[in-house]
Design brief:
Blueprint lengths: L1 H27 L12 E2 L3 E4 L4 E3 L4 E2 L3 E5 L2 E2 L14 E2 L3 E4 L4 E10 L2 E4 L4 E9 L2 E2 L13 E2 L4 E3 L4 E2 L4 E2 L4 E2 L4 E2 L4 E2 L7 E4 L4 E7 L4 E4 L4
Length: 220
């Protein structure tokens, strides 16, 4: 019995060492952001474009698969029309991420104007946040070659919990300590201390400070 126990302890210790080494690699290989955040972990694999337009807080931890892009011009090389017909759009984007923001993994943020995430926001896996959308007014041209439209800033306030597979679209503000249920598509703003679910997401509960509990909207 001694050997299996020793083997298990060694494997656990090895796993912790590997995990620590991966975190150190993830920290040391980060690009230069617009500021100098401390203790930031964005696990590999990851893709980060135009980090100078990104301003990060301290003690951030993102799981693997993050895709952060500050879009300074459109189209990019891979989205360019084969005949170079599209006039380039120029942007001055800004991505701000507060202190102690966490993501399980596969967090995608795309900004042409502004995406701001305040302190202590918790993201589950596979979240998509954008402040713009592809154009679709021309039915004779593939959408990828049409100009970006409906550009409007996104704000996610402090303490929010964003569930798995959530999509947050342009112009949305998510209030303080709000909860967005899994698989929701957020097309309009959500007030402070509310729970919203669905596609499009709708508020189903809000926090009642008098009873210190959640109350269904239907019962208000």
């Amino acid at each position: 019995m001694l050997f299996p126990r020793l083997k298990q302890k060694l494997l656990l210790r090895l796993g912790r060492l590997i995990r620590k080494a991966e975190n150190e690699v993830a920290k040391s290989g980060l690009p230069k952001f617009g500021n100098r955040p401390k203790n930031v972990v964005i696990e590999l694999p990851r893709r980060i474009f135009n980090p100078r337009n990104m301003f990060l807080g301290d003690d951030i931890s993102f799981g693997p698969g993050s895709f952060l892009i500050a879009i300074t011009h459109y189209p990019t090389v891979i989205m360019q029309h084969p005949d170079n017909k599209r006039i380039t759009q120029a942007f001055n984007p800004r991505i701000e991420i507060g202190n102690r923001v966490t993501s399980t993994g596969d967090l995608q943020i795309a900004a042409t104007r502004s995406v701001v995430i305040e302190d202590d926001v918790m993201f589950a896996k596979n979240i998509y946040i954008t402040d713009s959308s592809h154009g679709f007014s021309n039915m004779k041209e593939p959408y990828k070659y049409q100009a970006l439209e409906r550009i409007s800033s996104v704000l996610i306030k402090q303490g929010c919990w964003i569930g798995q597979n959530v999509v947050i679209l342009p112009g949305v503000t998510i209030g303080e300590f709000a909860i967005i249920g899994a698989n929701s598509v957020v097309t309009r703003s959500v007030p402070d201390r509310c729970i919203a679910v669905g596609s499009p997401a709708k508020v189903i509960k809000e926090w009642n400070k008098d009873i210190k509990g959640w109350i269904s909207i239907e019962n208000l």
